[in-house]
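Quick illustration, no need to memorize.
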Amino acid sequence: MLNSVRKFAKAFRVPSVQDREMAYLGEAKDRIDLEYRMRQIDRGMFRNSSF
């Protein structure tokens, strides 16, 4: 029962900044794209909000 509660809670969890960054890097098509995405993350693409 506890396992099903954990699955339910995990389904509604908001992804962390690190999770979003890793997913973004995982979508890179090649090395050049990966390096470009890494530079964007280093510049604060996911950490700086412009609200």
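Residues 14-51 form one domain.
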